[in-house]
Each structure stands twice: as structure tokens, then as C-alpha cells.
Amino acid sequence: MDFSIPHLFDSLYAIPDFISNHILPYIEDVADTVTDDGHDIGHGDGGEGYVDESEQLLKDTARQNMDAAEKMVKHKEKQVMGMTGMIALPVALLIGAFLIKIVYSMFTKTADTVGKGVKTATAKIKTSFVEKEVVNEDPAPSAPPKDPARTSARRRMLFGEVLKRFVVTTLSDADIERAVAAQREGKKVKKIGEVLVELGAISKTDVAQALKIQEKSGS
Which domain holds residue 171? Predict the structure, then answer.
């Protein structure tokens, strides 16, 4: 093979001729063949059927995609509803417990208030009843009694009850009976309080306090 420079230049000049004469005609033939086949498919007897099948395939694919999307949305909705229920249940329980606590607190306060009111009213009624039972030691009678000795003894005993209940709680029935007996035996008429003072069972201060209670009950 000749590798001389003039021979190489000749070979280079022959390349464009080879492309023009052999390569380009082959490419054109291939392009014409492809174009004719596409024209036959589009306008031949089976062209319309192929287009219809393609359209149907596209429609089916779109419908399947829509169905899948709807199923996914429904599934997500169920998940969201389930999560909402799981969150709402504890919240509802907490609210219910809080309301029960408020109602119980209100009921307890009302019961305490009513109980205190009942106790206060009971104490007032009891005090008023006891004070009304007390009779003045020596009241001025409006009319002469049928049995002065018995009436006087009754008044003395009532004064003794005042002393025993409200002033000198250590005073006994025996002390009062002894004072009544001493009062009857004495020549000078004395009040039951004075006799008890002389016997040392009470003091003059106790007598004064008992008289104040009698005056209060008679007012």
C-alpha cells in the first residue's frame, strides 16, 4: 500500500464522493420506507381499528387511575376519621370529669351552707326556748295565788335551774333542796339566791348573772 502524501490526499478527496454516492441514497431509501409504512397504517383497512383501540386503552387507563384515586381518598378519609375519634374520646372524658368535679363541688358547698344554717337555727330556737322557760325570781303577782307556798317554791326551783344550767354547772339538785329547806326554816324571808350564797354553794356574782338571764328572758 502506498502511504505517500499525494496518495493520502487523493484518498481524502474520495471520501465525500463515497458519502454522496452510497451513504445518502441509503438513508433516503430507509426514510421513504418508513413514511410509506406509516401512511399505510393510518389509511389502510386496520388504521381506524388501531386508533379506536388506542383511544379505548387511554380511556380505560384514565378510568383506572380515577378509581384508584377515589379509593385512596376514601382510605385517607377513614384514617382521618379514626384519628379524630381517638383524639376526641380522651378530650370528651376529660371535659366530663371536669364538669362532674364542678357539680360535686357546688353540691358540697351548698350542703355545707345548708348544714350550717340548720345548726344556727337550731341553736337559736333552743336558746329562745330555754330562756322562755326561765321565770323571774320574785315577780309582782297580778292576783293573789291560791297556794303561795307552792308557787314560791316553784319559782325558787326555776331560779335554781337557771343557776345550775347557765351559771354554776357544778350546782346539784341536792344543793338546791338544802337551800329550800334552810329558807323554810329561817325566821326571815330570804331569796333562794341569798340562801345559796350563805351556804357557800354560789357567789353573789353568780346570783347577779342569773338575775340578768331572767331579766333578759322576761323582756
Answer: 134-218
Cα separation, 51 vs 32, whole angstroms: 23
Task: Give CA angle at 114 (113, 118), nearest 5°.
Answer: 120
- Looking at the structure, tell me whether residues 114 and 151 fall in a common domain: no
Q: Side chain identity at 143, as an amino acid letter? A: A
Q: Determine the Cα–Cα distance for residues 215 and 219; give it in Å rounded to an integer.
A: 6
- Choose the final residue of a domain: 86, 121, 156: 121
User: How far is residue 126's CA from residue 89's CA, in Å, rounded to a whole number?
Assistant: 55
Residue 136 has pLDDT above 60, yes or no: no
Q: What is the mean pLDDT of residues 183-204?
A: 85
Judge if 148 and 199 occupy the same domain: yes
Instruction: Say how far residue 199 (Cα) sits from the centre of its chain.
Output: 68
Contact 214, 135 (CB under 8 A): yes
Same domain, 140 and 209: yes
Scan for cell 388501531, then name that residue: 50
Half-sphere exposure of 195 (CA within 13 A, CB side): 22
Ramachandran angles phi, psi of 17, nearest 5°? -65, -35
19-23, 31-35, 161-165: least confident range: 31-35
Long-range contacts of 37-43 (CB under 8 A, 24+ apart): none
Indicate the DSSP class of residue 45.
T
Q: Is 141 helix (H, G, I), strand (E, B) or coil?
A: coil
pLDDT at 166 > cutoff 80 = yes
